[in-house]
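Render this sequence as a predicted structure.
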Amino acid sequence: MPRITGISIPENKNVVTSLTYIFGIGPSLSRKILQEAKIEQTKKTADLTDEELGRLRDIIEKKYKVEGELRRERRESVDRLKRIDCYRGVRHKRGLPVRGQNTRTNSRTVRGNVRRVAGSGKKAPPSAK
């Protein structure tokens, strides 16, 4: 398995799909990188030569933030929001939706699948002894 930026990419898939296994590279960026490296998109990863792999590594490492560097940057930006106590930071702290989504009925996954159901309002009849 070829390794790019510390990630083993699968050999039995097209290069376009294989590059998406790297955090920070999606399908469109993958196509753009292959076009820049002058590699056919239909080619399998196993068929790449060492020279082609080297070109891919150089392009990805020099031009794009991927894997650890990108994860670190995202974490730092969220931590900054939490530190300055802005609205988005508070939502991150509480584990609630950050981007204005409705929380009354949806957002079960964000709130931990909590299902709070109110009773009918009637008290149970006293038990006969």
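Summary. The helical segments are 15-19, 27-37, 50-63, 67-83, 87-94. The radius of gyration is 24 Å.
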